[in-house]
Amino acid sequence: LKSCGVVMDKVNQADNIASTPKSDEPSIIADEALFAYFALYFMALLSMLIGCFRSSAIVRHHVEKNRKMDKSITIKDFRSFPVQSSITLCVLYLFFKHDVILMRLAMYTIKGAHYAIETLMPYNDVMFVDKLIELNNMTINKLTTISERIGTDLMNTTMANATAASGWALFSKHTIRPILRWITCLLAITCMSELAKPFVQKLINHAPKCFGKFRENIFYEVVVVSSKTEDFERPKKLGSYWFDRYDIYGSFLCLPIIACHLWKNHWITNNLIGLALSVTAIGSLHVSSFKAGVALSCGLFVYDVFWVFGTEVMVTVASNIDAPVLLKFPRNLLQISDPLSNAGIKFAILGLGDIIVPGIFIALLLRFGESRQKRRYFYSAVFAYAAGLFITTWVMHVFKAGQPALLYLVPLCVGIPTLVALISGDLHHMITYNEDHLVQHDDSDVEDESENSDAEAVGDNLEESKKRK
């Protein structure tokens, strides 16, 4: 979900496809298209910058409080990110393109035949009735053959296959799209409340004295542990989540935005949620070292290029997904008749992955620069991101085709700061920069490290004994 890429000339919903002839469709004015590109450009840069400074503030807060980071992306984790993203992308692609499977399923069930015909053919088609009768006859013949082979009657076989078809129909794109929207919106409540928390805190502190009870903050923590015994003698901590009253207040403050998006699915609320997700993700996803950041960026670079240029999977998922996991802006803004509806709007869209993936690497460069008391690497990375996004937009506008933004962003965001470090003489410090000491390790990791150190010690002793002999 987080590496959808930039895909142009795609309508975000199948329900919004206009049924009028192409000659009646409004043409997109060049100025409107440029304004849409500029809006996406501005939103991407703004969310990336806020997320980077927020990441630096979070790490600084942990250092001041002498706390460890719960999780971090290490160089061992970069292999799983492209694989997990590819699996998620392929599963969504199957859900969005499974009408062909339903057509094959129609060969074995009457209900599947009706569903496929009603889904894939318009009602006003002259061939509708003929095709339906033909499929029904073919289905009865198939079911008769199956029932004779397995030794059951035709009615039981038909009912079993009809039940299977009904269950499979539940996993259509018309069902998956609302589910993804709800899941993303529930996640967005946490992100938006976290961003709104400082403003809510200032608002309550400046409130009249009658709101004194609300000023008192109370902290809560939800911990998930597992144990092999019923008494939890040696519990293993799986995860924890803590929040306070101000988080709850922020959630109530953000609920109207979430409710409006679930109700109308408007592009403005979509962008508000997308910006909140981007800023929170860049601030929360901690990369432990420069090598891990480069490895992660290169892995997702290959993933993005392959799925956009090699197959139609990325374009299909990006154009069918109905969750706020991308930023979008109307390319025909001045021609919108109903501002509260998405009908007739052609969007320019930018995937949140094209903001988050470079953003967490640029946030690492910001922290590295602060450790060296130099921000030139952060400034050069921001310039590289702006240049890469501009090149992506220009290529997309000229060739009228979707482009994998990471194809241009990753080489520039990695190459330009590295070149600046080489000129400044800090290349060695940049490559060896590591924040692993700020991360809390699991017991298993500590045991593995101790076992490795013991093995190394035994190996050294054996070598010394051999040399003495």
Extended strand count: 4
User: Biggest sheet: strands, sense, closure?
Assistant: 2 strands, antiparallel
The count of helical stretches stands at 17
What is the H/E string?
A: HHHHHHHHEEHHHHEEHHHHH
Q: Indicate the percent of residues in helices.
A: 55-70%
Mean pLDDT: 76
Whole-angstrom Rg: 27 Å
What characteristic shape results from the CA principal axes?
A: globular
- Separation of the first and last Cα atoms: 61 Å
Structural class, please?
mainly alpha
Record the strand order, biggest sheet: 1-2
Residue share in β-strands: 5-15%
- Note poorly predicted spans: 1-26, 444-458
What does this structure look like?
With 469 residues, the chain is mainly alpha-helical. Among the domains are: 14-94 and 266-438, no CATH class; 99-169, no CATH class. It is 65% helix and 6% strand. The chain has 17 helices and 4 strands. It has a two-stranded antiparallel ribbon. A two-stranded antiparallel ribbon has the order 3-4. α1 (30-64) packs across α13. The protein starts with 29 loop residues before the first helix and ends with a helix. Mean pLDDT is 76; it is low at 1-26 and 444-458.
Give the topology, please.
Layout: H1 30-64, H2 80-96, H3 99-105, H4 110-120, H5 128-150, H6 154-169, H7 173-205, H8 212-215, E1 219-226, E2 236-244, H9 245-264, H10 267-284, H11 290-310, H12 313-320, E3 326-330, E4 347-351, H13 353-371, H14 376-399, H15 406-424, H16 427-431, H17 443-468
Antiparallel strand pairs: 1-2, 3-4
Helix pairs in contact: 1-10, 1-13, 1-14, 2-11, 2-12, 3-4, 4-5, 4-6, 5-6, 7-9, 7-10, 9-10, 10-13, 11-13, 11-15, 13-14, 13-15, 14-15
Membrane topology: Multi-pass membrane protein
InterPro entries: Peptidase_A22B_SPP, Preselin/SPP
Biased composition (Acidic residues): 444-454
